[in-house]
Write a structure and sequence with these properties.
alpha+beta; seven-stranded mixed β-sheet; 538 residues; 18 helices; four-stranded mixed β-sheet
Length: 538
Amino acid sequence: MSVDNMENLDEETRKKIEKLLKVTREKDGNESYASAQIDKGLIYYNLNQRKQSYESFNNINKSDSLTRYMMAQFGMGGMLAGDSKFNEALKVWSNIKGLGDSLETAGLKFRVGVALLEDSFSEYDEAKQYFIEAIEYYPYESYCYQKICNLLSDSRLKVAGKKSLQLLNKTLEIVEILKLDFEPDSSDNKSPERKLAHYTNTSITNLLLEKNEDGSLPSFFRLNTINNVNDPSEGHLLINYLKGIRENSFYAPDFDKDLHAFISCFTFNHDSLNQFRLYGKEADKEASGVSLVFKKEFFQLDNSLGGLSFLSFESNIQSANRDISTLVINKHSSMKESLSSKTRVSKQPVMRCVYIDPTSSYIQLAQRNRITFFREFGNETVVVQNREKSKAEYEWEEYKKYIDEKTVAFSDAFRTLKSTYESIIKEKKAIASDDLESSNKIDILINEILLPLKYLIKHSTFQEEQECRMVYVTSINAPEVNIAHKKLLFVEYEAEVKETLNKVYIAPAATEYQLYLAWLLRNTDVKIELSNNPYRQT
């Protein structure tokens, strides 16, 4: 098989196709053949050769490679749906039900489930089955989508289901906007947000870097229960905003055993006296801790999850076109490791917090401060439009444009979230007059949908911290949840600290630990610096 108008292709693409056409099962093996068919199908698809693309995917058998077979069925169904052949798409997609047990195969089922909720399909019971099969790796989203399927399947609650679906999709869109992108903005530049700091005390640092007495690995980094935070309004500002309440209201943090948030906090401020004084105190002594600066490898970087975003759907199933991993706030690790019969969570994305003032329309996204660019670039210069300019100032201005664009995108989505929330609350009240039980279930679902976003919205009082967070949502019954001192719930993070550290800043009142930290990190390229901040010890 060949591509129409092969002579019009660029040389690189033509050579790729010619090479893939030569791959056979007999000569190269089933796995290589299946991979070649996927690659060939993608090239054809991008060249708008839909027939050849479909045929390439259709060449793959289950016996060649189960994962690639499922990818092919997913892609074929997507093309059929794009051509409005919805019944045929359903039939093709049904070939992946009951197959596979991996992150990649669960991702395929998850995307099919999302697609089936669109008006073009309205296959709610069918979609629910796909979410059931995907829930191990996508517990938060699949949990919420299943509940939405139940509402959509009930004619009396269908409107509420539609509005709940809009609320969930908008919540996931906002989380995606807030997710940090560690990729550089060009081949010449590094991402300005490639490193984040975590403030802690020297005792915890020792546990994270030193081998235990029994010779086992160092302790693992923890995400702690949201109940440990120092902001009493944590988790309530979002709801107040959505309800239109413009006042400072302080409550005890929520506790929900079905879905519970675990977080870890990071900041763009790597060497901040204020954060040294507040966090990481040793024996309650101010400015006695350290700032651990992590490289991007500490966090989840790859949003493709095995190349699952390889086909785009047409507008009628646009919501299924999003990269699967961008929808994920939490997922169970595909390589769970045993530790005293517990498990650790896989690498997570990290999102910037948003600071709002409850009494006004003020919004600020967590971001780097201008001074950090001057500390990074010093007196370096750069030529811009034939004029020499401070590199620090230039980089700051470019970064500010980026943050301004993010702020506009967030603000627009946040306003839509508010109107969607108001709409579903209105519908819920109407239902309550006839069916109080269903109304209460909808109320619970609304709060569960908003759970990941709730802990990214912070009071403007704390904006100096410029905080970013991992948010891991799971049940306290989950095997990865641990407890210490009969009150501190936490989960352990799989990434090793020492391997992903970039630098350690030592607080002004912890300078005596410099030699010890140098010894702990002696076989690494981690830099150790004393804080540059003036501080009078008391």
